[in-house]
Write a structure and sequence with these properties.
With 308 residues, this protein is of the alpha/beta class. It contains 10 helices and 14 strands. Strands 6-7-8-3-9-10 form a 6-stranded mixed β-sheet, with helices on both faces. A 4-stranded antiparallel β-sheet has the order 2-1-4-5, with helices on one face. Strands 12-13-11-14 form a 4-stranded antiparallel β-sheet, covered by helices on one side.
Amino acid sequence: MVVECEKLTKYYGKTRGVEDLTLSVPEGMVFGFLGPNGAGKTTTIRCLLGMLKPTAGESRLFGEHVTLDGANLRRRIGYVSGEVKAYDKETGRWHIDYVSQLRGGKGVLTDELLQRLEFDPSRCVKELSKGNKQKLALILGLMHDPELLILDEPTSGLDPLNQETVFAIIEERVANGATVFLSSHILSEVERICERVGIIRRGHLAAEENVKGLLGKRLRELNVTFSEPVDAAFLADVDGMSRITLTGPNTINARVKGDHLDDLIKRLATRPVRDLSIEHASLEEVFMEFYRDEENGASETSTEGGVA
């Protein structure tokens, strides 16, 4: 296994970061580590990287026990933080050269990443937008072509075109043998590239599933306005429909579970529709709908937002 956690626990004083977390990721897999903000994702990653000493349990990378001084192990890892920290007065090129020296030489993918992400390394960090700071973080994390990519919200701040570029780069690295541990709270990001997911909530692993199983739990919010009055019962017998509410004489709000859009669209087509919107529900709503009862007795009173 490339990534292993065994009963990993980290407390910040009396505040729980993560507790009794056990999971494993084999070589070549893209593993999504999902949860709302404050669930324990970043705490887990920092323990995996040796940036935090766990309160109990352990983590291993490539079969080696993670310690606070594991420099040789870290050279095999590419890490992209969810919060980009850099020296404001220095240029992107300075950061690239500095990190390259620490690793013992120029990264083999440096020039390619600069070109594909359209990043200008001559500008100072303080002049960069959030998206360009994220590009710099991606270049620093991936330029040495690491065996393991640990990515914490890797597309944060990027526009859709640059997000697609990042996804393509990740897929290429996996095709060349890399393993990916992707932390995210964005379902669409996980759907795009992950094979398997671990669901973390309030510091506990609530579930572990393949992506097909996760997609079967998709929720969508439907708002439809018809050209004529309609009753809520109009959609009541359509598979996957729930919480159907008449919000006006011609307007219905409802929730669609799983992959039932085809049945829904066919039913809607039988009446004249004036306006229609179908949006993905948030990952937190998916948790509340499907994973609330799978928390193995996790305390409802624990602090959720103060620790990542």
